[in-house]
Amino acid sequence: MKKKLGIYIHIPFCVKKCNYCDFNSFASDKDMQMNYINALCVEMKRNNEAYKDYVVDTVFVGGGTPSILIPDLTKRFFDCLYSNYEIDTNAEISMESNPGTLTKEKAKAYKEIGINRISLGLQSTVDSELKILGRIHTYNEFHESFMILREEGFDNINVDLMNGIPEQTFETFSKGLEIIKELSPEHISIYSLILEEGTPFYGMNLKLPNEEEERLMVHSIPEILGSEYHQYEISNYSKKGFECKHNIKYWKRDEYLGFGLSAASFMNETRFINTDDIKVYLNYSDNKNVYTEFDVLNIDEQMSEFMILGLRMNEGVNLTDFEKTFGKSALDVYGDKIALHIKEELLERKDNHLFLTEKGRDLANYVWSDFLGD
Ligand code: SF4
C-alpha cells in the first residue's frame, strides 16, 4: 500500500502587509506572479520521481494570499501538482483566501480545480479592529465572500479569528464569535495576536487587552460555540468530521512536502526549509535544490517533538504510539516532568493518553518548554 503524503504550497503575495504580519509575504505584479508559478512548477516536477510510492491525501495552499492570483494561474499550479503527484480521490484540498480578493469567478474556478475546503482570514467582525490590524477588508466584504463560497457549493469553510487585538474588549470578541457561529462555518481557528519583532506593531504603544481579559476571551469560546463545535487543538474548533486533516499531519508528525518560498517539509525524520529569498527562488534551476536548512532529527529531538506537538491536540499524546515509535515508554523518558505537571494539574492522564488540562492550555508554553531537549 502506498504511503500517505501531505503537500503544502506557499503563495507569498498580498495586496498589502498587515500590521502584525511576520510571514514571508509581499506585494507583487503580474510578471512576478507568473514567474513564481513557473518556479513552483519546476520545483514540483524536480523531485516527483522520489515520491512515486506516495499518495497525497491532503493539500494546503497558504500564504500570503493565494486568492490574489487570477484563476488561470491557480489552475496552472494545480495542473502541475496533479500531473506530478498521485492525489487521493478523497483528498482534502484547502486554500487560504482573503475577503477583498475573492470573487464569484474565482470561487467557481476553485470548485472546478477540485479545491474542497476554503479558509477565510477574517480576524475580527469589528471594522475598527480590522483597520487597526491593517486588514484590507471590512466585515461586510467577509460576509459577501462567505456567501459566494456557500452559493458555489463549498461545504467546508474555516474562519480565522483573533483575540488580543488592540482596542478589542471581551464584548467585541464574544459578540463577534456569536456572529460567526450564526453563519455556521464548519471550522473556526482562533489565534492570539503575537507582537513579532520587525512588524509595524512591534514597539508601538498599543492599547492591548490585559492578560486577564484575554484569558476571559479564550475561556468563553467553548461556551459561546456550544455543542455544535468541539475543540480538537489548542486554537482550533470544528464541527464533527471537519477537523483540518492537513494541520493534524503537522501535529502528528506525519510526512509532508512544502513547495514555494520558505516552505517547510518533513520527510523521513528530516525537516528542510526552502529559501526565503524570492530572487533565489525565482532563479533556481531544475537541477538545484532550494533548501536553506536541512535538519536530520536525532532520537531526542524526535521524542521531544512527539510530546510537544501531541500536547497541542485535545486528545493529547498517545503513550502507546510513543512506545511503538521509540521502543521505550514516555514515562521512562519524561517521568519526573510528567509527574510534576500532573501534580500541578497542567497535565492529565486517561488510559493511554496524556493531555493538557484547561489550566495546562493557559500555561502551555511552560509545559512544552519542559519537553524541549537540553
Ligand atoms: S493577509 Fe496574511 S499573509 Fe498577508 S500580510 Fe496579512 S497576515 Fe500577512
Q: Note the beta-strand portion.
A: 15-25%
Oligomer: single chain
Strands, total number: 15
Q: What is the rounded Rg?
A: 21 Å
CATH architecture of the largest domain: Alpha-Beta Barrel
Determine the N-to-C terminus distance.
38 Å
CATH homologous superfamily label of the largest domain: Aldolase class I
Ligands: iron/sulfur cluster
The structural class is: alpha/beta
| Broad shape | globular
Order of helices and strands: EHEHEHEHHEHEHEEHEEEHEHEHHEEHH
Number of domains: 2
Q: What report would you give on this structure?
A:
This protein is of the alpha/beta class and 374 residues long. It folds into two domains: 3-251, TIM Barrel; 316-369, no CATH class. The protein has helices at 30-46, 71-84, 104-113, 127-133, 139-151, 170-183, 211-225, 245-252, 278-283, 299-312, 319-326, 330-343, 358-362, 364-369, and strands at 3-11, 54-63, 87-97, 117-123, 157-163, 187-192, 230-233, 236-238, 256-259, 264-267, 270-274, 291-296, 317-318, 347-350, 353-356. Helix 3 links the parallel strand 3 (87-97) and strand 4. Helix 1 runs parallel beside helix 2 (71-84). The model has no long low-confidence stretch (mean pLDDT 96). Bound molecules: iron/sulfur cluster. Iron/sulfur cluster (SF4) is lined by residues 14, 17-18, 21, 23, 25, 63-65, 98, 121. Iron/sulfur cluster binds at residues 14, 17-18, 21, 23, 25, 63-65, 98, 121.
